[in-house]
Amino acid sequence: MQQEVIRGTDSSGLDLQFEEGLLNRFESFRKANGKSAMIVLKIDKDTRTVGIEEELVDVDLEDFREDLPDTKPKYILYSFEIKRADGRLQVPLVLIYYTPHSAATNLSMLYSSAKNQLGRFFNVNKMIELRNADDLTTEFLVSQLGMR
Fold first, then answer.
1. Which of helix, strand or coil describes residue 80?
2. Which of 25, 95, 115, 128 makes the best surface tag, with the fewest CB within 10 Å?
3. Which pTM value belongs to this model?
4. How many other CB atoms are there within 10 angstroms of residue 74's CB atom?
5. What integer best gives the mean pLDDT of the chain?
């Protein structure tokens, strides 16, 4: 049973469905305590259904990026602590659209077409495109967020 359907309102025209309970799990994720947390999302290419592939807490980015596949796109919702130069602690939420160069074209197009809808669904202000898994570092994310 599907929870919600978002009809494509942008130029993609792509209709996505979201697994039942996905938004509730996301809200629990946002409230979770930990220095970093991640939800890895996948899209079923046949049903166009977005679901959770994996949830991680206190993520080590180096370990995670080593496990990223070279041929399959992913969406990664990532929340992590950043200590600003003035001592303030911030916990941004970013949507990382990972599409490796060697991913199948049809999968890359599907994931690319859905990224704006996912950003709206999860109310994420910052999306970061990542083509090379080696670039997935805290320094890279901080620079992309303009929080140097």
1. strand
2. 25
3. 0.86
4. 21
5. 86
